[in-house]
Write the structure tokens for this entry.
Amino acid sequence: MKIPQNKIKQLIEESAALADAFDVCSVQLMAVADLPTRFGDFQIVGFVSPCDEKEHTAIAKGNVVDKEGVLTRVHSECLTGDAIGSLRCDCRDQLIESLKRIEAEGEGVLLYLRQEGRNIGLTEKIRAYALQDQGYDTIEANIHLGHKPDERDYRIAANILHNLRVKSIRLLTNNPNKIQQLRLAGVRIVERVPLITQPTTYSEGYLRTKAEKAGHLLGDLSTVRDVEKILEPPKED
Ligand SMILES: [Zn+2]
């Protein structure tokens, strides 16, 4: 089962009508092709962002069009992790684990967003790594360089899902901020699915910072799937 040709034609036409060159988060669906991978057979959906010409993709399994509760991973590009196998982060492990889960489920989608280095860009990420080599943690390094700890914008992801006519999702994530931003952008999240990877000696500190400073769900909340529970404010003792 995959997205059939007549649906693809429809999606491309609808997307062309929706695309807005003045909206920074607008995307236009340009092309769909089969993508056999070592993790299973997928389709790759190519999007262009009309305002900055960034090329985002969705890797789809099954016919996700008009579906509810689609298993979804929203992944931001990480050249060093995804392609080179860097041990400084867990991006590649999360990418591979997500594709395996989607394959096992037989239906789902992975959005691959061009937001390198939590959207500060590759060179700035390398600058931040250099600072981390001197003892800064991942968040301190970004702030030292004049960036926010996390500059990713998930409205693009929301638009991609809208273009694919995905009605609601089950989101593979440990990041409550991602859940919140996607909800604000109008995505219906019916469940959060934990995505736990094994830390390496190099990524341990990075993962600890994500948990302690960015609220990632790696401790008590690591298995919670109820989105409302994750987003409710912490209770005072
Ligand atoms: Zn990474």
User: Anything to note?
Assistant: The first strand starts at residue 28 and ends at 37. The chain has one domain: 5-115+152-228. The mean pLDDT is 90.
